């Protein structure tokens, strides 16, 4: 399917969708380093610009719109002012794109915390808005470890199907492939040791891309990115920030001596090892932490391909 990608970052979501056989025809992000990374690894169809400068009417037609939107303005969860809150201009842009372009499907990704904002009023309003824009929606809280990603990363995924396609649900959300202990006929969660143990010592000469790490001292305490990493479990969530000063706090390596390198973090996020991140180290960490795991995105992309090949489905966009 042809896809518009909003708030694309370094392209983890887009890469997985493309690997599955789809085509991203337009993408956008405001971060120049992320856009450079995207262009050098995925393609030149990404636009570096503030979305406030983008005219929705000029965007190409596509069957799918994807993206995650920040939710700073949802903290008060004022049900009647969320679209008007200036801090929600990114959410408003996503909403306006699907409302005006009317793709057949959309995929929205967000942090788990969006479910509890305003005691649930924020997500309730978001789902209401999407319905008003012309979509039947379904919400999934996903632990990426359940899909073979070596990381206990929980994210909210919202799937929208255009009401013009009828009430029969066409998109079947991918079922889990893994389980914590490998029960119920599923595979056991992938451990961080299994994912990254093959990498050489980053302090020795090597040719591994982005194999550098933050010198922020490892001191264990009960706080995000400061807890001990168990080598036999999936990694804690790879972060895009976290040291209290606006910088990135990389997850401690399970050897207890240092933090994960950018490359190790990217491998946890299931990026290919030849995918090179551009920018200073802090920016690279941030790009990795903001991404959707490529493997999970691939599974979503395969479902889009299955729908496209189903003869009962005909796009309302290109007929």
Q: Which key features would you list for this structure?
A:
319 residues; alpha/beta; Rossmann fold; seven-stranded mixed sheet; two-stranded parallel sheet; 8 helices; 9 strands; globular
Description of the molecule:
The chain has 319 residues and is α/β, with parallel strands linked by helices. It has a domain of 195 residues: Vaccinia Virus protein VP39 (Rossmann fold, 3-Layer(aba) Sandwich). 25% of the residues lie in helices and 15% in strands. A seven-stranded mixed beta sheet has the order 3-2-1-4-5-7-6, sandwiched between helices. A two-stranded parallel ribbon has the order 8-9. Helix 1 packs across helix 8. The mean pLDDT is 92.
CATH homologous superfamily placement of the domain at 2-179 and 293-309: Vaccinia Virus protein VP39
Radius of gyration: 20 Å
Cα shape? globular
Could you estimate the helical fraction of the residues in percent? Answer: 25-40%
H-E string = EHEHEEHEHEEEEHHHH
Enumerate how many helices there are, as a single number: 8
CATH class of the domain at 2-179 and 293-309: Alpha Beta
By CATH, the architecture of the domain at 2-179 and 293-309 is named 3-Layer(aba) Sandwich
Distance between the termini: 14 Å
Q: What is the β-strand count? A: 9
Provide the structure class.
Answer: alpha/beta
Low-confidence stretches: none
CATH topology name of the domain at 2-179 and 293-309? Rossmann fold
Estimate the strand proportion: 15-25%
């Amino acid at each position: 399917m042809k896809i518009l990608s909003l708030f694309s970052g370094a392209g983890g979501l887009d890469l997985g969708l493309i690997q599955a056989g789809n085509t991203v025809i337009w993408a956008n992000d405001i971060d120049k380093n992320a856009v450079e990374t995207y262009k050098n690894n995925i393609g030149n169809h990404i636009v570096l610009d503030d979305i406030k400068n983008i005219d929705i009417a000029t965007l190409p037609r596509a069957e799918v719109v994807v993206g995650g939107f920040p939710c700073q303005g949802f903290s008060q969860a004022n049900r009647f002012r969320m679209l008007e809150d200036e801090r929600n201009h990114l959410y408003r842009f996503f909403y306006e794109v699907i409302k005006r372009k009317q793709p057949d499907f959309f995929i929205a990704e967000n942090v788990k915390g969006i479910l509890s904002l305003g005691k649930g009023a924020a997500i309730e309003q978001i789902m209401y808005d999407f319905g008003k824009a012309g979509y039947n929606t379904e919400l999934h809280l996903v632990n990426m470890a359940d899909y073979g990603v070596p990381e206990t990363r929980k994210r909210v995924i919202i799937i929208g199907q255009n009401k013009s396609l009828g009430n029969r649900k066409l998109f079947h959300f991918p079922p889990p492939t893994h389980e914590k202990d490998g029960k119920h006929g599923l595979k056991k969660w992938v451990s961080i040791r299994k994912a990254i143990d093959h990498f050489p010592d980053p302090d020795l000469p090597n040719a591994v891309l982005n194999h550098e790490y933050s010198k922020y001292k490892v001191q264990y305490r009960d706080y995000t990115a400061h807890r001990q990493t168990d080598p036999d479990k999936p990694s804690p969530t790879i972060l895009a920030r976290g040291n209290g000063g606006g910088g990135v706090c990389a997850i401690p390596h399970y050897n207890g001596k240092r933090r994960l390198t950018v490359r190790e973090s990217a491998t946890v996020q299931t990026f290919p090892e030849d995918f090179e991140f551009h920018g200073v180290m802090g920016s690279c960490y941030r790009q990795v932490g903001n991404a959707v795991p490529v493997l999970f995105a691939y599974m979503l992309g395969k479902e889009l391909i299955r729908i496209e090949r189903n003869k009962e489905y005909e796009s309302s966009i290109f007929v």
